[in-house]
Design a protein that fits this description.
The complex is a heterodimer.
Chain A (H helix, E strand, L loop, with lengths): L6 E7 L7 H9 L6 E8 L5 H16 L3 E6 L2 H9 L8 E2 L2 H9 L5
Helix pairs in contact in A: 1-2
Chain B lengths: L4 E8 L5 H15 L6 H23 L4 E10 L2 E8 L3 H5 L4 H11 L2 E5 L4 E8 L2 H5 L7
Antiparallel strand pairs in B: 1-2, 2-3, 3-5, 4-5
The chains are: A alpha/beta, B alpha+beta.
């Protein structure tokens, strides 16, 4: 997508752990420069803190650039690991795509 | 549970399949002990973080080694899991996001100890009685 696009989508599937950190970093780096990013993890049954750390870094950069991020998850594991990390409020997490897109399209404060 | 059950598995830290292989071996072990989700999933999350810590050195330096997972239960409603590798813990403590993994482990396990003699051994003790596990107080953010 180019800079005029309103939303970029980063989609990953399968277990995401330390062995796939480089792949995750690359996928996030390839996201375009749109004003919103949907990170689709709906087909990720397992993620570890490597993923959370990488997403935090990406979120911080996005916030500096005024970009909005939503995480779409497909099971409870990711929500639980965020809870255990004490980061429940760090991301906008959705389990329904429509709700995530509504958030990304919104104009309310991030 | 009755009697003693044990899982011991060694894997190459440089093999990208190692973290998943260890998680799956542990999942099968826990299923055989009739430890059900969500407790089973939580134990796998915690042990997965310890394994990630162990293989971190291999990913950062390219030096491959061995990570050992040892899980055992010989007391009712208590599971002991050790994750051991020969990498230096102090190096990994410094990496960005490093504290997240240990925070997660401590939020799930009843007790955690880290021994850095001759490598790094993360020892985790879990309640396997779901009711007792839920009584663990929430960790501060």
């Amino acid at each position: 997508m180019n800079e005029q696009s309103s939303m970029d989508v980063v989609r990953l599937s399968g277990d995401l752990d330390i062995s796939r950190r480089a792949e995750l970093t690359d996928a996030l780096a390839r996201a375009g420069a749109g004003r919103a990013v949907l990170i689709d993890l709906s087909d990720v049954p397992y993620a570890d803190s490597t993923v959370i750390a990488e997403l935090l870094r990406f979120r911080n950069e996005a916030q500096e650039n005024g970009r909005r991020i939503a995480l779409l998850i497909g099971n409870a594991q990711f929500a639980r690991i965020l809870q255990y990390a004490g980061l429940t409020a760090a991301f906008q997490v959705f389990d329904e795509r429509g709700a995530a897109l509504t958030y990304l399209a919104g104009t309310d404060p991030m | 549970m009755t009697g003693r059950s044990e899982l011991r598995i060694n894997r190459d830290t440089g093999d990208p399949a190692t973290p998943k292989a260890l998680r799956h071996a542990l999942a099968s072990f826990l299923a055989a002990l009739r430890i059900e989700t969500p407790l089973r999933e939580d134990i796998i999350i915690a042990v997965g973080e310890a394994v990630a810590n162990a293989v971190e050195h291999a990913y950062r330096t390219g030096d491959s080694g061995t990570v050992e997972l040892h899980a055992s239960t010989d007391a009712e409603d208590v599971l002991l899991v050790d994750v051991f590798d020969r990498g230096a813990f102090i190096d990994r403590e410094l990496r960005e996001g490093r504290g997240l993994g240990l925070r997660i482990v401590r939020a799930i396990a009843r007790a955690v100890s880290i021994d850095t003699e001759g490598g790094t051994r993360i020892r985790m003790v879990f309640n396997t009685d779901p009711a007792a596990a839920q009584q663990k107080p929430a960790q501060p953010a």
